[in-house]
Amino acid sequence: MNDVVNLLTLVVFLAILFLFLFVRSINGARRREKESQAYLQTLKGQILGEMSATSAEKSDDLSRQIDELFLSKLPVLGSSIERFWMDLSLLGWQKNWRSRVVLLAAPCLLLGFTLGKDSLSPLGLSFALAALFFGLLVFLLYRNAMAKHLKEFRQNLPQSIDSIVRVARAGVPVTNAFNLVSESLPGPLAKEFSLIDSWLQLGVPLRQAMQDSAARVPLNEYRFFVVILIINQETGGRLSDTLERLSVTLRERQELALKIRAKTSEVRASAVIVASLAPLSLAYMYFNSPNDFQFLLNDPTGNSVLMYAFGSVAFGLGITHFMIRRVIR
């Protein structure tokens, strides 16, 4: 039975490897085809004096993503799936998500079959462990990438608001300020402002462009900025003074957030240590005490102990996370 499971593990791993190479080759061919078509469309636009189709496709990319995602119509998980899909677009992972899934699924399947091949139900437990590892890996990568992305976005926002204030005081309309400001900004905020400028050049109203941008970026500070621009366009007033006060408020919020992180550093470090105890203990047991490790997987009592350990650790981490979120809010 062990030889059959080992052979099946090898076959699954090779199949995933060939599937990844096949998907990668297809994506490369599609990308080269799109680049050639975009180049031809650009030459055609230059000859005819018209806007190229590449700019139009880039400018309404978010609208197509929101409208074409059929999973967003699900009753319970629809909003979460839609938010996750938009975050993948924000991170730039949406174009090659298939190759990323295959690349992450291969080691998870291999690890799942390695751990579950000697259990009472090798196939079922192996696929269950592989799915668990895949979900945890995707969650950790997605959470870390979004945290870094939003942190950079939050840090550059006051600087961008100051630039818009200077442009507004110079007499430039706010609809023309995004293109000027995006040229001097680093990071993802420059990309977002360039996208807003593309929408405005196509004739999209400022209110709709900013609302779509606020739906795309899950950041409260940025939504404050969007609300101020929309209200100022509808009611009038001195936009530069309002944005200047917002910039000062955002810098004060950043200082407060740094103080909160310093106050909660001990609790967060304890949560990381507690979370790493369970997998590190299992890894030590797997290499140094394989009989005890097999007892956890093959014996019903060991399964109960393993479920209790993971359940108690998850429950403790949930309480710790809830306490930290209460302090941050």
Automatic annotation (TrEMBL):
Keywords (A to Z) from UniProt: Cell membrane, Membrane, Transmembrane, Transmembrane helix
Keyword Transmembrane helix (UniProt): yes
Cited Pfam families: T2SSF
Recorded coiled-coil stretches: none
GO CC annotations on file: plasma membrane
TM stretches of this protein: 6-23, 101-117, 123-142, 269-287, 307-324
Annotated membrane topology: Multi-pass membrane protein
Domain named Type II secretion system protein GspF: residues: 162-286
Localisation: Cell membrane
Major subcellular site: membrane
Name listed for the protein in its UniProt record: Type II secretion system F family protein
Organism from which the protein derives: Marinomonas transparens
Upper taxonomic lineage: Bacteria, Pseudomonadati, Pseudomonadota, Gammaproteobacteria, Oceanospirillales
